[in-house]
C-alpha cells in the first residue's frame, strides 16, 4: 500500500515501495548476499530467491539456505518448475509471518 507524505505546506507525495525489478520477493533478501547470486540472470534470481527464503524460513540457517538456493544440478529445470508453481508470493509471505526469521 502506498504511503502518502505531506509537509507543512499541504502538498502530498505518493511513495511507492521499492522492489528490485518489480519482484517483492527479491526485496525480502538480506542486504548482504553471495556475489554468485548477483551474477545470475534475473529469471534465475527469482526462483533461487524463493528457494533461499523457503529454506531460511524452515531452518533459520542463513548460510545453509544460500547453499541450497545456489546449488546447481542436472534437475535444475524440474526444481525451477516446482518452485515457481508452488512457492508463490503468498506462501513466502505467510511463511515469514508465521516463521518470523526476517
In terms of topology, how is this protein built?
Blueprint (H helix, E strand, L loop, with lengths): L2 E4 L5 E4 L8 H4 L7 H4 L3 H18 L2 H8 L6 H11 L2 H11 L3
Antiparallel strand pairs: 1-2
Helix pairs in contact: 3-4, 3-6
Describe the structure.
This protein has 102 residues and is mainly alpha-helical. It has one domain. Helices cover 55% and strands 8% of the residues. It contains six helices and two strands, in the order E-E-H-H-H-H-H-H. Helix 3 packs antiparallel against helix 4 and helix 3 packs parallel to helix 6.
End-to-end distance: 20 Å
Helix-strand sequence:
EEHHHHHH
Give the beta-strand count.
Answer: 2
Number of domains: 1
Task: Please report the number of helical segments.
Answer: 6
Can you give me a brief rundown of this structure?
The protein is mainly alpha-helical and 102 residues long. 55% of the residues lie in helices and 8% in strands. It has one domain (20-99).
